[in-house]
Amino acid sequence: MIEVKEPKKEIPVIGTLKAMFIVFKHLFQKPITTQYPEQKRIIEDRFKFRIFLSLDDCVGCTLCEQVCPNKSIAMTSLNRANPRNKRKIYPDVNFGTCTICRNCEEICPTDAIYLTHVFETSRTRNSFTYTPEELSLPEDEVIK
């Protein structure tokens, strides 16, 4: 005959005391919440967000558009004097659908597209699309 042992029953007051101890311990700890935007956290070097475009280096090869998994990059024509870009097409980026996969940065043959640490890109317009001129400007100069 197999003997089945019943698990030990814990005294109900012990569980309540353990919970009170945990709450009391956290009561005197410094909070870890950061009051953004007043306090800014240190950004890691590997964190990249904002896509920048060098209009002088872009050759209009459309590789960035082809490699974008969300179709966030579309090529638009821009009448600009650039002997390297004979088709005069440049990428514009929709940050509403961009997942920052960095495929465009990796595949760009001339390093015209690169990502930076800028991540505060709020806009008042209903469009999240950055034109090629806006991609080449610093974020504080972009008309929002």
Question: How does this structure look, described?
Answer:
The structure is a single chain. This protein is an alpha+beta fold and 144 residues long. The protein is 22% helix and 15% strand. The strands form two sheets. It has a three-stranded antiparallel sheet with strand order 2-3-5. A two-stranded antiparallel ribbon has the order 1-4. The longest helix is centred in the first third of the chain and has 16 residues, at 12-27. The termini are far apart. The model has no long low-confidence stretch (mean pLDDT 89).
Essential attributes:
5 strands, 144 residues, 3-stranded antiparallel β-sheet, two-stranded antiparallel sheet
**What structural category arises from helix and sheet content?**
alpha+beta
H and E string: HEHEEHEEH
First-residue to last-residue Cα separation: 79 Å
If you average the pLDDT, what whole number results?
Answer: 89
The number of distinct helices, counting runs of at least 4 residues, comes to 4
Shape: elongated
Strand order of the largest sheet: 2-3-5
Proportion of residues in extended strands: 5-15%
Q: Tally of extended strands? A: 5
The major beta sheet can be summarized as: 3 strands, antiparallel
Radius of gyration using CA atoms only: 27 Å
What is the helical fraction, as a range of percent? 10-25%
Low-confidence stretches: none
